[in-house]
Amino acid sequence: QLQLVESGGGLVQPGGSLRLACTASGFTLDYYSIGWFRQAPGKEREWVSCIDSADGSTYYAGSVKGRFAISRDNAKNTVYLQMNNLKPEDTAVYYCAADPPPSRYVCYNIPQYAYWGQGTQVTASS
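Given the sequence above, the corresponding structure tokens read:
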């Protein structure tokens, strides 16, 4: 059974850091494009970052560029999202998603990722 599990969320003061993890079971993550998304209360889900299966290129939404970093650890079958200088507007449920190869799209253009995790809450508040 293919499964994604997010972890690492929590409550942090503005300016603080968290590292989210997305761990896969039932398949090998390093062949997949992986995206991170978030959804705040009353808002639509938005794309945050992704790492492409073709060449490992990474991409970020403008609102997080320079503060967030996505990376893979193939040995642990895990993708991370390092989040620094968190702001109150980063508060949301964060989801990871995977798209199987071969992909016709660069990871930030994938119309619908195939597999999703259950989400982890991130709250930046004083």
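The longest strand covers residues 18-25. Try to locate this feature in the token string yourself.
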